[in-house]
Design brief:
Porin; mainly beta; 1 helix; 8-stranded antiparallel beta barrel; 227 residues; elongated
Length: 227
């Protein structure tokens, strides 16, 4: 996580320097909203979406007419929920995967009438794990609930981002509403040594130690403010 934050700070300084030297306008803002997250892959039968939050800071550097570069630093809750079996006992489980995410996006304003301007975005999101847990309750006995760390999660992910929205200019402030889809390209879990497994952590692997096939898939709705 420290590495991603350092990269973000370097990018922010670099953008500010480029903007000052080239007299290109740069603006900063913050955004927040809701994630509707799930997982895709061969081992996701029965799993549904997990709702969570997403939010953070961003910068916007104008490149050419209609185009701008937009790096962001976000906190994003992902994962899924659904029925699982633990030592033969059916449970309702929620995979809680929380990330620090750095999307690097190209934004294209389509133009519009008056203060409204629709836009499209696309790019890549680099993520690192902040928290990885599974919460479960015994089916029919919701009071029997526990939470454990996940054992074999991958520490990072790379997502492809596409989306769009609309900007509303209000003097010096620009308000945006956007819808985006982020598809993870890396498997969420690593293979494990079946002979050396923990007793108190969740392991997402089959009986041979092969990691379960799951990838992040997230739809985000956010509102942002840019100054």
């Amino acid at each position: 996580m420290k590495r991603l934050i350092q990269i973000t700070l370097v990018m922010a300084v670099a953008l500010a320097t480029v903007s000052a030297n080239a007299q290109m306008p740069i603006k900063f803002g913050f955004k927040g909203g809701i994630n509707s997250a799930t997982v895709i892959g061969d081992d996701t039968d029965g799993l549904d979406g997990r709702n969570g939050i997403i939010g953070g800071l961003f910068a916007n550097l104008k490149l050419a007419k209609g185009f701008s570069l937009q790096p962001e630093l976000l906190y994003a809750q992902k994962g899924a929920k659904g029925p699982m079996t633990v030592e033969g006992i059916p449970v309702d489980a929620t995979i809680q995967m929380d990330y620090i995410e750095i999307p690097v996006l190209l934004k294209y304003n389509l133009g519009g009438r008056g203060s409204l301007s629709p836009f499209l975005i696309g790019g890549v999101a680099f993520s690192t794990i902040k928290s990885s847990k599974t919460k479960a309750s015994v089916v029919g006995l919701p009071l029997l609930t526990g939470e454990s760390d996940n054992f074999n999660e991958r520490s990072s992910d790379v997502g492809i981002v596409v989306g769009g929205g609309i900007d509303l200019s209000m003097g010096l402030i620009r308000i945006s509403a956007e819808l985006r889809f982020t598809a993870g390209t890396k498997a969420m879990w690593k293979d494990v040594d079946i002979d050396n497994l923990p007793d108190d952590e969740w392991v997402y692997a089959d009986d041979t130690g092969k990691a379960l096939d799951m990838k992040n898939s997230v739809v985000s709705v956010m509102v942002g403010f840019m100054f």
